[in-house]
């Protein structure tokens, strides 16, 4: 497998930060000439290394809570479950493999019963490995599919300014009043999500998709006011290696957080004490306090990555704050994205 060049590494890091600034600031970040930047960016999308999504503010479509489920479907049920997961418009993500599946579902009701949520997705509750049902806000989802921290370690990058990116990305101006669901602004948001966020990987294999500052004014205004959040995501199966290797394993840790242990605390501690950057944290703050944490693992035999605190074991540190800790792993090469950050359904009522 080929490795990323230094220029490509800087480009990927800049893209994954997903900062909706001007093109001039973007290019200055990479240190590239304008023509080099445009060529490298187009090639990165054409090769499927990265792809774009726009994540709507959950309240824009009445999404009040998110259910994040990890399941182990019974043998012979994958085909039926695939059809069941693709159909509901509220399913934003469904990654499946022979032994493990990860699903994200937007909820408009107050259901807090994991077994009921599993049944909505045609899962037998016995197939459910773990799950968390959390309010759709940054306190409970402080890291939402933000891979830059983990990949930054593999790419040997410093200054990961945007990590962690939560579910709702703060804006400098703050959200204005939400558009009415029947307004032209809401229709503009839906058009953009259907065009770029259809759930398919890549951008037709031809060129890079439009960035926020090139969108039509009605759509750009929604980004500016925080009702749509632009995200650049990596295709972990296609992205070349960095100087310290490539991610090879999807790792999910789950358990019940101790009282007063928040998702933000877990993110800060994992980074500071263990040198680990989770890409996903979903943490309930009351009741069962179910907590899910997603990591990327490397292939065995790769040289160790220096830690800020060499004495801190990730599992031992987590076990101090998360009761009943369990860890499940699955090779990234076996994971199929049935639904891959599809958010248009969050706006449909």
Characterization of this structure:
The protein is 28% helix and 24% strand. About 2% of the residues have low confidence. The chain is an alpha+beta fold and 349 residues long. The strands form three sheets. It has a five-stranded antiparallel β-sheet. Strands 6-9-10-8-11 form a five-stranded antiparallel β-sheet. The longest helix is centred in the N-terminal third of the chain and has 13 residues.
Strand content: 15-25%
Radius of gyration using CA atoms only: 19 Å
Mean pLDDT: 84
Principal-axes shape call: globular
Query: How many angstroms does the end-to-end distance come to?
Result: 45 Å
Query: Major beta sheet, specifics?
Result: 5 strands, antiparallel
Low-confidence stretches: 199-206
Q: Give the helix level as a range of percent.
A: 25-40%
- The class by helix and strand makeup works out as alpha+beta
Question: How many beta-strand segments?
Answer: 12
Compressed to H and E, one letter per element, the order equals HHHEEHEEHEEHHHEEHEEHEE
Tally of contiguous helical segments: 10
